[in-house]
Amino acid sequence: MIADRILAWYDQNKRIFPFRGTRDPYAVWVSEIMLQQTRTETAGAYYQRFMERFPTVGALAFATEQAVLKVWEGLGYYSRARNMHRAAQLIVRERGGEFPGDIALLQALPGIGAYTAAAIASIAFDTRVPAMDGNLIRVMSRLSHTADSMALPSAKRALYRYALSVMPLDRCGDFNQAMMDLGACICVPGTPDCALCPLAGDCGAFAAGDAEALPLLPRAVPPRAVDVAVSIITCEDKVLLYQRREKLLCGLWVFALGEGACTAGDVISSLTRQGLAVNLIGHIGSARHVFTHRIWNMELYHFAAAAMVGVSGAEWVTLAELDALPLPIAMRAAKKKALSILGARKLDHGANINTGKD
Ligand code: ADE
Question: Which among 106, 137, 127 is positioned nearest to 29, based on CA atoms?
Answer without folding.
Answer: 106
